[in-house]
Amino acid sequence: MNIVNYEYHNQLVKSKSDFFDSSHFERIMSIGIRNIDYSQLSEESLVYLFLHDEPSLTKKRSERTKKLYLHDLSNFLRYTKETIGGIQELSHNEMEIYFYQLSKKYAATTLRRKKTVVQQFLKYVYDNNGLSEDFSSRLKKVSVKKEALVNRDLFPEEVNEILDTLKNTNFFMYSLFFLLTTTGLRIEEVAKAKWADLAFHPSLNVYLLRVVGKGNKTREVRIFEDVLDDICYLRQLRKQISELDASSRSAFLPKADGSHYRADYLSKYAAEKIEETNLPFLRYRKDRITPHTCRHFFANYLMGKGIELKKIRDYLGHESIMTTERYLRERTRRQNLATIDIGNSLF
Predict the structure, then answer these.
(1) Which of 49, 82, 263, 317 could form a disulfide with 213 if both were Cys (CB 3.0 to 4.6 A apart)?
(2) What is the domain count for the chain?
(3) Is 140 a residue whose pLDDT tops 50?
(4) Taking all residues of the chain, what is their mean pLDDT, rounded to a whole number?
(5) At what angle are helices 171-183 and 291-304 packed, to 10 degrees?
(6) Burial zone of 216 (CB within 10 Å; 0-12 exposed, 13-18 middle, 19+ buried)
(7) Is the pLDDT of residue 311 over 50?
(8) Domain end residue (candidates: 144, 170, 199)
(9) Which residue has the higher pLDDT, 330 or 157?
(10) Which residues have a Cβ under 8 Å from the Cβ of 221 and sit 6 or more positions away?
(11) Are 140 and 160 in a shared domain?
């Protein structure tokens, strides 16, 4: 059975959830994915294959990444269907028009992401002979000024203010914020973390939590004892075990029934609850404090303690040291100001 027949008989994509079902892709691989005539497939099937046909054997796209890609591609394909009938009728001019329209609605950082996703998709279809022309190659670059990047500065005094306020008003949010600012974990890593993956290491006299980061890479992060005490208390409030247990099936930061929170829920919840504290310094911030702000704070805090850049990169799970440097750019810029070393008075 060839792929076109398989697609017809199995209705490859019937609903949004089907885009994330890998069982069809495994069946397609057994048929022989490189023998597919991509020009005969529906656009939905092209998107499905793009999402599952990973560019690397070892690095896999996360579910969150796939959802973002699907969102951006759905908007693009809806536009092409409504204006020209579909991507088979695509032209360079139509591509320019589409991204020009987006440029009027989105900030440069968001526009750059959307453009990258569409480019990768079209390049994938073209490379597999699904399009007669490579429409990804002639698009204008999206330049992002440094000033346009989100300001994720957060200072120890501000962290302590937030913690003091939350401890008396929302213990769950307090525990989450304490965890984020003392580990530098991504919110996806917090959401997926398991209680069974926490262990005490006598030789180091520390508690380490094993987490799965981007690209399914595993690393360990230290959980400081004061943070762990609060996590254990939260778990007790939720009737969950608070002793180390490698056989536990509960989430590290659990719901009342022990199950995992969704990362997108925690991210939105955290930003909203911090904003609701109405602390005075929040009025002067241009950008909201989010879980990712906490990650930047942690990186800057380690740098302030004299930790080597390479160690910070490895601890945060960054693939490139350039990403870590970007986290620290404001700190570095201020340290290099011409007048910093002069003292408190010029004359």
Answers:
(1) 317
(2) 2
(3) yes
(4) 85
(5) 40
(6) exposed
(7) yes
(8) 144
(9) 157
(10) 183, 184, 185, 208, 209, 211, 315
(11) no
Burial class, 110, CB count within 10 angstroms (exposed 0-12 / middle 13-18 / buried 19+): middle
Write out the two tokens for 164: 């003091």
Domain that holds residue 47: 3-144
Q: Quick one: 79 and 118 in the same domain?
A: yes
State the average pLDDT over residues 254-266: 95
pLDDT at 160 over 90: yes
Q: Check: CB of residue 94 under 8 Å from CB of residue 84.
A: yes
- Measured at the CA of 11, the angle between CA 6 and CA 16, to 5 degrees, comes to 135
pLDDT above 70 (res 201): yes
Largest interatomic CA distance in the chain: 85
- pLDDT over 60 (residue 249): yes
Residues 279-297 pLDDT 10s: 988 887 888 899 999 999 9
pLDDT at residue 159, rounded to an integer: 94
pLDDT band, residue 142 (cuts 50/70/90): low
Residue 124 identity (one-letter amino acid): Y
Q: Which residues pair with 208 in a beta bridge?
A: 199, 222
**Quick one: tokens of 238?**
């939720």
**CA–CA distances in Å: residue 37 to residues 41, 128, 130, 131, 300:** 7, 8, 7, 11, 51
Per-position DSSP letters for 317-340, written without gaps between them: T-SSHHHHHHHTHHHHHHHT-TTT
Integer-rounded Cα radius of gyration of the chain: 24
pLDDT of residue 215: 80
HSE-up of residue 117 (Cα within 13 Å, Cβ side): 23
Distance CA 23, CA 3 (A): 14
Residue 84 lies in a domain: yes
Model-wide pTM > 0.85? no
Question: Do 212 and 328 belong together in one domain?
Answer: yes
Q: Which amino acid is at 215?
A: G
| Edge-to-edge strand ranges of the sheet holding 206-212 | 198-201, 206-212, 218-223
Distance CA 145, CA 109 (A): 9
Alpha-carbon distance of 130 to 148, in angstroms, equals 37
How many Cβ atoms sit within 10 Å of the Cβ of residue 252?
Answer: 23
Per-residue pLDDT, 337:
53
Report which residue type is found at 341: D
Look up residue 11 and give its amino acid.
Q
Which token pair is 43?
A: 């656009």
